[in-house]
C-alpha cells in the first residue's frame, strides 16, 4: 500500500495557532486478480499549534469517484 498527501493550499491564521491544509490524497493498493489501483480523494486538515508543535485537530477527506 502507499499513501501520499499533496497539499494544494495551506493557510495559517494571523494568530499562528491554527492552520488548514487542503489538497489531494492518493491511496495505492493491489486488488486480488487486478493490477495496482490508485484511488484519489480530496483532503482538508485543520492543525492546532500547542507548545510549539503542530497537531491535527480535524481531518476530513472524500473520494473523487469517476462520473457514471
What characteristics describe this protein?
single chain, 68 residues, mainly beta, Nuclear Transport Factor 2, Chain: A, four-stranded antiparallel β-sheet, 4 strands, elongated
Major pleated sheet: 4 strands, antiparallel
Distance between the termini: 26 Å
* Tally of DSSP β-strands: 4
Just give the CATH class. Answer: Alpha Beta
Strand content: over 45%
Q: Report the average pLDDT across residues.
A: 88
Describe the structure.
There is one protein chain. Strand 3 and strand 4 form a beta hairpin. The two termini are 26 Å apart. The protein has a single domain (2-63), classed as Nuclear Transport Factor 2, Chain: A. The mean pLDDT is 88. Strands 1-2-3-4 form a four-stranded antiparallel β-sheet, with no helix packed on it. The protein has 68 residues and is mainly beta. It has strands spanning 2-12, 18-30, 36-50, 53-63.
Can you describe this structure in just a few lines?
With 68 residues, the chain is mainly β.
Annotate the secondary structure layout.
Elements (H helix, E strand, L loop, with lengths): L1 E11 L5 E13 L5 E15 L2 E11 L5
Antiparallel strand pairs: 1-2, 2-3, 3-4
Amino acid at each position: 500500500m502507499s499513501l501520499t498527501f499533496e497539499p494544494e493550499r495551506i493557510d495559517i491564521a494571523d494568530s499562528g495557532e491554527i492552520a488548514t491544509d487542503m489538497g489531494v490524497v492518493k491511496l495505492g493498493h493491489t486488488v486480488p486478480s487486478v493490477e495496482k489501483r490508485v484511488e484519489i480523494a480530496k483532503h482538508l486538515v485543520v492543525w492546532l499549534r500547542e507548545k510549539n508543535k503542530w497537531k491535527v485537530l480535524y481531518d476530513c477527506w472524500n473520494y473523487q469517484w469517476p462520473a457514471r
